[in-house]
Amino acid sequence: MSRFSVIIPLYNKEKDIFFTLSSVFNQTFKDYEIIIVNDGSTDSSVEIVKNLKSDKIHLFSKNNEGVSKARNYGVEKANSNYIAFLDADDYWYPNHLENINVLIETFPKHAWFASSYEKKHSHKLISPMYSPILEKEENWFGEVSDFFKYSFIDCLAWTSSICMQKEFYTALNGFDEGITHGEDTDLWIRAALKEKLVFSNKITAQHNLISSNRSSIVDMKNRNNLFFEKFEVEEEKNSTLKKYLDLNRYSLAIKHKLNDDQDTFKELSKNIDLSNLNKKQLFLLKQPRVILKLLLITKSVIENLGMRLSSF
Predict the structure, then answer these.
(1) Continuous segment of H or E residues that includes residue 193
(2) Predicted confidence band at 218 (pLDDT cuts at 50, 70, 90)?
(3) Cα–Cα distance between 81 and 103 in angstroms, integer?
């Protein structure tokens, strides 16, 4: 049995999948299997995978039902005790699995693990994730005391940088298949409420924000968002969870306003404790759609020049 099962959902990523898989093959830690779930691709993604002819790859195909079902299906097929996720357009540095394995060896009784990552905003801008936990000494790793406190700007957990015990993932019922936007955030919250995350501030993965076939804000009305109601009881008792949820409400509210969905914008906004937002966020929340669109265009132009902008 391999140490890790690497789960890769695949849907129309012909321009990215070879590069992503190459980053897995280049891992210094070699004890893994790759479970690829073809989620109804209509391009040449599957042919590219088949042409690699690696005995580490196990390819399964199913009808297109979304990334959550694809990931859950992949975990069902996994033979390892530890599940590492990787999206088909993201990238691992060669030390990623080696670093995760150090966390497991050091904290064998813990159930989920993650390393720091960077974000590729444009061809000229790659920035490290931001969290106060990165201000600890270089190459720090350990148990995170408060997951939500350290995830207000960039979340400590991100799909392509985490690893979970299969038993823990199964006990959580995996990704919520009823959610089509925020399914990852939902899982991280449920996991953090059950067990402490073990984290390494060593950057070992890259989140590709400019890959092909990415979803955009234009289809927000057709998405099922994170069900915030799930956590009403917990957020009343946990102030950092409340702030974390409010920041996610804020982000979704802005996207729905941009998509001219005022009803959802108002529903999300009314449940935000405004004291959890900073001045920039409060300003943006009040702006009309046309101003937000202009600001979004400006943000894109500036990031293409190599500078990062955010409302944090």
Answers:
(1) helix 183-194
(2) very low
(3) 15
With tokens 């999948």, the residue in question is: 17
Beta bridge partners of 84: 6, 163
The 10s digit of each residue's pLDDT in 258-304 is 999 999 999 999 999 999 999 999 999 999 999 999 999 998 888 88
CB atoms within 10 A of CB 46: 17
HSE at residue 198, side-chain half, CA atoms within 13 A, is 19
Contacting residues for 147 by C-beta, under 8 A, at least 6 apart: 156, 157, 188, 192, 196, 197
Tens-digit pLDDT profile for residues 193-208:
999 999 999 999 999 9
**Alpha-carbon gap, residue 147 to 107, rounded angstroms:** 17
Looking at the chain, the domain(s) classified CATH 3.90.550.10 span: 4-208
How far apart CA 113 and CA 156 sit, in angstroms, is 10
The span from the CA of 71 to the CA of 74, in Å, is 5
CB-CB contact of 254 with 310 (8 Å): no
Task: Determine the Cα–Cα distance for residues 162 and 158; give it in Å rounded to an integer.
Answer: 6
For the chain, the farthest-separated pair of C-alpha atoms sits apart, in whole angstroms, at: 56
H or E, element range at 205: strand 198-208
Encoded amino acid at 197, one letter: L
Average pLDDT of the chain to the nearest whole number: 94
DSSP state of 175: S
Domain 4-208 part of CATH 3.40.350.10: no
Q: What is each CA distance from 120 to 18, 52, 90, 206, in whole angstroms?
A: 18, 26, 10, 7
- Distance, in Å, from the CA atom of 268 to the CA atom of 272, rounded to the nearest integer, reads 7
Q: How many Cα atoms within 13 Å fall on the side-chain side of residue 46?
A: 13
